[in-house]
Amino acid sequence: MIDAVKSGFEREGKDLAYYSSPSGDPELRKLVAEKLSLERNMTVTADDMVLTSGSGEAIGIVIQALTDPGDVVLVEEFVYLGTLNQMRRYGADCVESNATTTGSSLRIWTQS
User: Fold this and answer.
1) Is there a single domain that holds both residue 44 and residue 79?
2) Strand pairing partners for 94?
3) CB neighbour burial string for 65-83, b if at least 16 within 10 angstroms, e if fewer
4) Beta-carbon count within 10 A of 107 CB
5) Are residues 2 and 41 in the same domain?
6) What integer pLDDT is reported at residue 61 of this predicted model?
7) What is the DSSP string of 86-103?
8) Domain that holds residue 110
9) CA angle 98, 65, 95 (to 5 degrees)
């Protein structure tokens, strides 16, 4: 084990003290793009994706990209609290919709 750690530090050590790209490690993004191409027949490059450190970060990026402060967002009754908090943080007006077995109820939009 010690030899493996030493080998890793010798090979990668110079890069361990630096922050990675905000989009995620370039080599890992390249490997993910290749995997998606081979296994799912997707046309994607490393530049087409962002790798995040967790779902909360990814959810926040999507909310920032798709909403503006003051936008009304229809959310299901049992939405993930992390998502709800992120939407509120970015200024979305969250309106609860009761979910049914066929999806969200849009009656709230027709009520005055």
Assistant:
1) no
2) 73
3) eebeeeeebebeeebeeeb
4) 9
5) yes
6) 92
7) HHHHTT-EEEEE-EETTE
8) 66-112
9) 20
Question: What local confidence, expressed as pLDDT, does residue 112 receive?
Answer: 42
Round to the nearest angstrom and report the end-to-end CA distance of the chain. Answer: 67
- In a shared domain, residues 47 and 73: no
pTM more than 0.70: no
**Do 71 and 47 have their domain in common?**
no
Domains of the chain: total: 2
Asked whether residue 58 is domain-assigned, the answer is no
Tell me if 70 sits within 8 A of 81, measured CB to CB: no
Question: Looking at the domain assignment, is residue 61 inside a domain?
Answer: no
* Res 87: pLDDT: 93
Are residues 1 and 47 located together in one domain of the fold? Answer: yes
From first to last of its 112 residues, what are the pLDDT tens digits of the chain? 888 888 877 777 666 666 677 788 888 999 999 999 999 999 999 999 888 888 899 999 999 999 999 999 988 878 889 999 999 999 999 988 777 777 666 666 665 4
Please check whether residues 39 and 70 belong to one and the same domain.
no
